[in-house]
Amino acid sequence: MSAMPPRNRAERGSSTRDSSTRGSSGPGRSSQAGSGQQVQDRPLKRPLNHSAARAALPEFGLALSVQTGDAAGDWPVDRSQLRRWVRAALEAEAQITLRLVGRREGRALNLAWRGKDYATNVLTFAYGGQPVQADIVLCLPVIRAEARSQGKRLRDHLAHLVIHGVLHAQGYDHERVREAHRMETLETRLLARFRIADPYALGHTRGLPTS
């Protein structure tokens, strides 16, 4: 599997709504990584909106692309459910790619962009600017194993990671205790809309295992 460089700006501008592909080289199909662009396990900028009254926020425009890499398996939910999870976490207009990958692709991406030689559950490639632009890579074998070991439903854990990635794309972070608490509180509130229990109340260490 080859690493997935950030997609170029021109390609982002022509993003189609709800497109779906399988077996491409990744959300970013440009051959070179743009200068100054970074993989984001931490965001590029401060959150766009910290309002607690999120239920009253308008529905923002969303161009969503869904991709599946080799050896990733099938999505355990349909595209409409993925879109609902993404929309729930949005605070601005966005162009987002969700890419489901297998362990090999996930490991290669984590090594190439973060220098860590193993597959992790979610990687967020945030590009800044408006609309929000990001590629969110989800490693299904890792997510499935985590859900099993943590006693969670697969779809619930996947929902958490999708929302987590979308929040990262908008500038949320969990590097510091205060930031982590704010992000985790928001994740829990958003998940409750889908009748998903607080993922941090099950006796696990607070903070997602993304490193």
Instruction: Report the structural category.
Output: alpha/beta
> What is the rounded Rg?
16 Å
Cα shape: globular
**Largest sheet data:** 5 strands, mixed
Q: How are the strands of the largest sheet arranged?
A: 1-2-3-5-4
Q: Within the CATH hierarchy, at the fold level, what is the topology of the domain at 56-192?
A: Collagenase (Catalytic Domain)
Q: Approximately how much beta-strand content do the residues carry?
A: 15-25%
Query: What is the first-to-last residue Cα distance?
Result: 21 Å
Could you list the spans in which at least 5 consecutive residues all have pLDDT below 50?
1-57
Helix content: 25-40%
The CATH class assignment of the domain at 56-192 is Alpha Beta
What does this entry look like structurally?
The protein has helices at residues 9-13, 79-89, 103-114, 140-150, 154-169, 177-192; strands spanning 19-22, 62-68, 94-101, 122-126, 132-139. It is an alpha/beta fold and 211 residues long. It has a domain at 56-192: Metalloproteases ("zincins"), catalytic domain (Collagenase (Catalytic Domain)). It has a 5-stranded mixed beta sheet. α4 packs across α5 (154-169). The protein is globular and about 35 Å long. The two termini are 21 Å apart.
